[in-house]
Amino acid sequence: MSAFIAIVRRDLLLAARRKSEVFTALFFFMIVVSLFPLGIGPETALLRRIAPGVLWVAALLAAMLSLNRLFAADHQDGTLEQMALSPTPLALLVSGKVLAHWLTAGLPLVLLAPVLGLQFDLSARALGVLMLSLLLGTPLLSLIGAIGAALTLGLRGGGVLLSLLVLPLYIPALIFGAGAVEADMAGLGAGGHLSLLGALLALGVFFAPWAATAALRIALE
Amino acid sequence: MLRVHGLACDRGDRRLFSDVDFSVATGEWLQIEGANGAGKTSLLRILAGLAPAAGGQIEWDNQPVSKVRDEFHARLLYLGHAATIKDDLSALENLQTAAAVAGSPLEESVALLALRRIGLKGREDLPSRVLSQGQKRRVALARLLCSQARLWILDEPFVALDVAAVDLLCGILDEHLARGGMLLFTSHQAVHLAGTGSSLRLGK
Q1: Per-domain boundaries in chain A
Q2: Predicted model pTM
Q3: Does B82 reach chain A within 8 Å, measured CB to CB?
Q4: How far apart are the C-alpha atoms of B192 and A190, rounded to whole Å?
Q5: Second CATH level (architecture) for the domain B1-75+149-204
Q6: B195 FRET partner, CA 20 to 30 A, in A21, A207, B32, B162?
């Protein structure tokens, strides 16, 4: 367990020392989301209608920006080998890296989303559901992204391949995440969508680190 | 003890080496020599369990290493080519993280003592980015001072070190052997260590 904590702590420290990487993704999210109200104009009914989809798609893209660096630096400087040789299971250490990735790339999106949602004239209740759906969904994005990052590790042009690989896998999260907010605004209740998102997250927590570990071991050989 | 029978390694279609046999008992060292590309690093990576062998067996305490992998890793310290140093972390943070990942977390005072002994006094809190190549190697080697592992596998440990650091490292290796540790390393230079040792030449 101390190895898990050490990995989380190290990755958070590294993120704190290289703030530009964290803020790049965050500003990307802010700007992409803000472009839509500016482009469409003050049609509140239309903006309310597209808000969940726009915010969620922007979150997917922003979460993906930092993915290709998830394992690349560790692979290059030999840290990944040391992690593979640790008596702590590699899958647990990978979970630590995913947790740190979520804390630096996912959680800020969750906190920023309600502010950006105001531009779309969303109600306080819809903003709450949006935050909740992102809170359940963004860890899933980090988990699935870790599998993609591990599979494309060491490949030339891995960045583009990574998006092609990971974006289709993000579709369920997108459907249920954006769907939760839409359902709530239509008065149908977001419970069903959020439960499915939670179920996907539970599956991801159990299987994604394991799958990413298998891919990392192949990359190490 | 570590015993290896008929070990073989392939790189693509090419056979790098085959029929490698040796054993290392407590307090013994083995230097692996060979021309560039002879497969020294590949051999060490196979022994550490990072790469699969094309054939042969590796035994740890008379059991196939594949069966006692966890126990073996708990007793193993492997330092590869790469310095495993994060440029944005200080020497102290690098050492403490590496030790925690290896399963033996260090108190700050112990880590500071190790860094001081390895010759990095006054540079413990500098970002590793500003350290020289040799100083980065020293940070990596500081792990040896805090290691409880019985088997050390070191890939080119003497690279980029100055004369004083080479002597210091030889002293650390001697201490390890005197404690009953085992040591495998690659090097192109002749190294004088205490205890019984031999050398293995790859690719004749």
Answers
A1: 2-220
A2: 0.90
A3: yes
A4: 72
A5: 3-Layer(aba) Sandwich (3.40)
A6: B162
